[in-house]
Design a protein that fits this description.
The complex is a heterodimer of chains A (113) and B (113). Chain A contains no helices and 12 strands. By secondary structure, chain A is mainly beta. Chain A is globular and about 45 Å long. In chain B, a hairpin with an 8-residue loop joins strand 9 and strand 10. Classes of the chains: A mainly beta (113), B mainly beta (113). Chains A and B meet through strand 6, strand 10 and strand 11 of A and strand 4, strand 5, strand 9 and strand 10 of B.
Chain lengths: 113, 113
């Protein structure tokens, strides 16, 4: 069965600094991968997705992620973090059979002044 | 284009009671999935409906059941509520087809006391 690991429960970054959130997945075939963001008490907003092709994908709000098959990773990056980026971030892999998602446990991003 | 809407936004139920949560899918989407997100966890897949038929189920007991209507809206029913059922319940809709993107509603926060 597929699984997603987000090794960092919390990360604190200074405003203006760069950000990298880690995600490792386990999946037998070519994965469909996603990053979602969730503000407190809210639903999930899609930041970006990888289906195939270029391994560096661009998303909304200045985020990007790189798919590395050899490392089973799909890390999320942003060159300069803004205070409004403080939220919880979820990495997910899609079950191609049912188009459902398996999520990691999330990484809470805190942004310090 | 109307997004995914869920109702109610919050509710409180007593252990042993039954609850029904509702979801209106995004226009043109015929697939609805439900997820349970416990506090501090990532969302977990409950089940998926496609054209009014259950199309996949996660590791949840039979007291979790659902319906999808001809207009593709959906209900999640939970019988014999337990304290551990307290969570944010998320509905996601998507068009049919492998690897299509899911759009999430804002969720229903259920508290069981």
């Amino acid at each position: 069965a597929q699984s997603v690991t987000q090794p960092d429960i919390h990360i604190t970054v200074s405003e203006g600094a760069s950000l990298e959130l880690r995600c490792n997945y386990s999946y037998g075939a070519t994965p469909y991968l996603f990053w979602y963001v969730q503000s407190p008490g809210q639903g999930l907003q899609l930041l970006l997705k990888y289906f195939s092709g270029d391994t560096l994908v661009q998303g909304i709000k200045g985020f990007e992620a790189e798919f590395k098959r050899s490392q089973s990773s799909f890390n999320l990056r942003k060159p300069s973090v803004h205070w409004s980026d403080a939220a919880e971030y979820f990495c997910a892999v899609m079950n191609s059979g049912y188009s459902t998602l398996t999520f990691g446990k999330g990484t809470m991003l805190l942004v310090s002044p | 284009e109307t997004g995914v809407t869920q109702s109610p936004t919050h509710l409180i139920k007593t252990r042993g009671q039954q609850v029904t949560l509702r979801c209106s899918s995004q226009s043109g989407h015929n697939t609805v999935s439900w997820y349970q997100q416990a506090l501090g966890q990532g969302p977990q897949f409950i089940f998926q409906y496609y054209r009014e038929e259950e199309n996949g189920r996660g590791n949840f007991p039979p007291r979790f059941s659902g319906l999808q209507f001809p207009n593709y809206s959906s209900e999640l029913n939970v019988n014999a509520l337990e304290l551990d059922d307290s969570a944010l319940y998320l509905c996601a809709s998507s068009p049919s087809g492998q690897g299509t993107e899911a759009f999430f509603g804002q969720g229903t926060r259920l508290t069981v006391v």
